[in-house]
Amino acid sequence: MVQEKGMAVAERIYSIMENGDGRAGVAFQISITVLIILNILFVIIETEPSIHTLYGAHMEAFATVSLIIFAGEYILRLSLYRHKMGSRRFALIRFAVSPMMIVDLIVILPLLLPFFGVDTRLIRILRLLRLFSVFKLARMSDAMSEFAIVLRSRASDFALAFCIFFIVLILASSFMYYIERDAQPDVFYSIPASMWWGIVTLTTIGYGDTVPVTPIGKAIGAGVAILGIAVYAVPTGIIATSFNEYRRNKKGDRCPHCGKNIGFR
């Protein structure tokens, strides 16, 4: 009887933390969201010397308390999942190495490292890992969760798009190196150096610090800039199509032949 009550309580807490069920779930998600936003805000504003001089100690104390709360949340999630799955150790290991749990672990690393004798100066730098807490918002946001699902479902397509981008980058940078190296030996002195121009041009940023000066180089540069728009269009189209498909299937589209709900793959 006591064990059944314990199971029920554990399942209730797990449901509150994972699904945000009921008022307690909403309150928990709002509290964690506010804590995450404040941590990100403090990481940013504490770099202002005047603010750090006045409130640095307070913000450091807040950071420590936040990390303790995040660590407690991490341990509680592991404990509740272990309670839920029983003796299935491999299921617990898979849960522990899931993307969101890894993010949780990265966030609390600055709290754990002092126990391993890590230099305090390094720990101050690693406090920037609190910025990873922004990814914790994925648990609190349906839109971010949907985005993660879409990315996972189209991972092979994104990998192909990245390969195409990388191939175009290598070819464009190599051609530009051989064309421009005589005219600008201090700028296009190697293919890796030319890749900076390639990345800036393909992403259509165009800083202007590295540009071709020969007629052939300018012609190739113009072509690469236009090609960069097409390269960007591929992943954008994949994301848009995948979101539409996900939303359509989420509404419960059914197969006209068997009547079963068509899930998102």
Descriptive overview:
By secondary structure, this protein is mostly helical. It folds into two domains: 2-140, Voltage-gated potassium channels. Chain C (Four Helix Bundle (Hemerythrin (Met), subunit A)), CATH 1.20.120.350; 155-250, Helix Hairpins, CATH 1.10.287. It has helices at 2-19, 22-45, 49-85, 89-96, 99-112, 120-126, 137-140, 142-153, 155-180, 191-202, 215-250. α1 (2-19) packs across α3 and α9 (155-180) packs across α10 (191-202). The chain is extended.
Which key features would you list for this structure?
265 residues; mainly alpha; Four Helix Bundle (Hemerythrin (Met), subunit A); Helix Hairpins; 2 domains
How is the quaternary structure best described?
single chain
Series of H and E elements: HHHHHHHHHHH
Strand fraction equals under 5%
What is the arithmetic mean of pLDDT? 81
Compute the number of strand runs: 0
CATH superfamily of the largest domain: Voltage-gated potassium channels. Chain C
- Contiguous uncertain segments of 5+ residues: none
Named CATH topology of the largest domain = Four Helix Bundle (Hemerythrin (Met), subunit A)
Largest sheet, in brief, is: none
Radius of gyration: 25 Å
